[in-house]
Amino acid sequence: MSAADVVIYFNPQCGTARNVLAMIRNAGIEPLVIEYMKTPPGREVIRQLSVRAGVKLRDWLREKDTPYTELGLDNPALSDDELLDAIEQHPILLNRPIVVTPLGVRLCRPSELVLDILPEPQKAAFSKEDGEAVVDATGQRVR
After folding, report:
1. Distance between CA 49 and CA 59 in Å, rounded?
2. Where are the alpha helices (DSSP H) in the chain?
3. Does pTM top 0.90 for this prediction?
4. 34, 56, 111, 116: most buried, per Cβ within 10 A?
């Protein structure tokens, strides 16, 4: 499997994103890592990812530690184009991590959601940075 098959839109400052990246690697996959704050995806890419994920663009907006409130993005009358304008100017508004695999596109919050779209099983036990077990020694998800 090539890195082009699995892509993660990633912020290294985000613990959830770091956990997701570690789970992808725990499946033996080295993804294409796009640090979206350094290399923001274009508006059409964001729009297409939202459609492929089957979620409204609004559902991908991050409120915490962003200019969400100051920009009035809680206004339900704003169009997708207006939301994309805001994301384009402030990439921090795009929630993360977003993962693309041959099995789908997902905003992986919580981080375990990535397991539903990985094309390979987990190879070993995995615990999040905070110690929470996610995968057992047989590679099975801990529920």
Report:
1. 12
2. 15-26, 43-53, 80-89
3. yes
4. 111
Distance CA 100, CA 117 (A): 8
Residue 33's DSSP bridge partners are: 8
Cα(17)–Cα(28) distance, integer angstroms:
17
Can you tell me whether residue 34 is helix, strand or coil? Answer: strand
Superfamily, domain 3-135: Glutaredoxin (3.40.30.10)
* Residues noted as catalytic: 14
Instruction: Parse the chain into domains and list their residue ranges.
Output: 3-135
Distances 52 to 68, 101, 127, 132 between C-alpha atoms, Å: 24, 11, 29, 30
